[in-house]
Design goal:
The chain is α+β, with helices and mostly antiparallel strands. It has one domain (about 50-265). The protein has helices spanning about 15-20, 35-45, 95-105, 155-160, 170-180, 185-190; strands spanning about 45-55, 60-65, 70-75, 80-85, 90-95, 115, 125-130, 145, 195-205, 210-215, 225-230, 235-240, 260-265. The strands form two sheets. Strands 2, 4, 5, 8, 9, 10 and 12 form a seven-stranded antiparallel β-sheet that branches. A six-stranded antiparallel β-sheet has the order 1-13-3-11-7-6. It is globular and about 65 Å long.
């Protein structure tokens, strides 16, 4: 964490430098223009076609076709989930939380897009509805659906607490789920697990030290975060062992509840010219040749 060293001599222009207005690094409005109304039209005629209930402290994977909607839904109690996305035809193309964060901010909601890893770097999914958008940012700087955290994992637990017993964290849950879904061995599956979208989790950074914090999630049964699949996806979801993460994101004692992945099909004619997202057009030459 960054702490101010009061013994350090301040430069003469310190106040000027600290008072400079910030500049947004990446403006997503300049990346591409898309008509959000087509998703709203598609939602009007969508019908539920598939679903999967993810048990507490476990994970599951579900295939979602390009042109379908899918939801992560709270069922019985306050519960957060860790979401991974893969290109169904190429597991190496995964959700890129870092670039999504740079483009859309620390927390995502309706109209934001989840971008894929390099070199494809294209929208994998677009958020089309969020029942928790009322929360906004609280007085601590906290908000829901963050892409700043990673996922609870046995390696960090080993560093902090010692031992190799913590197998039902989100990293391990997603590893087992992907291995089962794609018929992979555990080491191969683990290599594709990546930083997550923390669905429903309420988080932020402390004002003084910039440390990652969490608060009790405001999610209630019936709340959901809805997406539109821009390419063929495997959707992986872990019902976090921290429950609503009011006190711990890794716990064997927290109250935990199931989550559901729902899939909806729609009339593609209502999507008015929508096409599956294409890969990034950069030629990958990296300044060599040409």
């Amino acid at each position: 964490m960054k702490l101010v060293n009061k013994d350090r001599k301040r430069p003469e222009d310190a106040e000027r430098l600290q008072a400079l207005e910030p500049v947004i690094c990446y403006n997503p409005a300049r990346i591409e223009n898309y008509n959000f109304s087509i998703y709203e039209d598609g939602r009007k005629v969508m019908k539920k076609t598939n679903s999967m209930v993810v048990s507490p402290r476990s994970a599951g994977c579900l295939d979602v076709k390009a042109g379908q909607f899918f939801r992560v839904k709270s069922l019985e109690g306050s519960q957060v989930g860790d979401l991974n996305l893969w290109n169904r035809h190429n597991l190496a193309e995964t959700f890129y939380s870092g670039k999504t964060r740079a483009l859309h901010g620390t927390h995502v909601s309706t109209k934001d897009r989840l971008w894929s890893s390099l070199p494809a770097m294209r929208p994998m999914a677009t958020i089309t509805h969020d029942t928790l958008d009322w929360y906004g940012f609280d007085s601590f700087g906290g908000s829901v659906h963050d892409i700043i955290g990673t996922r609870c994992d046995p390696y960090t637990n080993n560093l902090i607490s010692g031992g190799d017993h913590y197998h039902f964290c989100c990293h391990s849950n997603l590893t087992r789920a992907l291995a089962h879904h794609c018929d992979l061995d555990i080491p191969s599956a683990e290599s594709y697990i990546h930083d997550v979208l923390n669905v429903f989790m309420c988080t932020g950074f402390t004002r003084d030290t910039g440390q990652y914090f969490m608060k009790e999630s405001p999610v209630k049964p019936g709340d959901y975060l809805e997406f539109f699949a821009e390419i063929d996806l495997i959707v992986g979801l872990s019902a976090c062992p921290g429950g609503n993460c009011a006190s711990s994101h890794s716990s064997d004692k927290a109250d935990c509840y199931p989550l559901e992945i729902e899939v909806f099909s729609t009339n593609l004619d209502k999507l008015n010219g929508w096409k599956k997202a294409s890969k990034n057009k950069y030629d990958q030459s990296h300044g060599v040749g040409g």
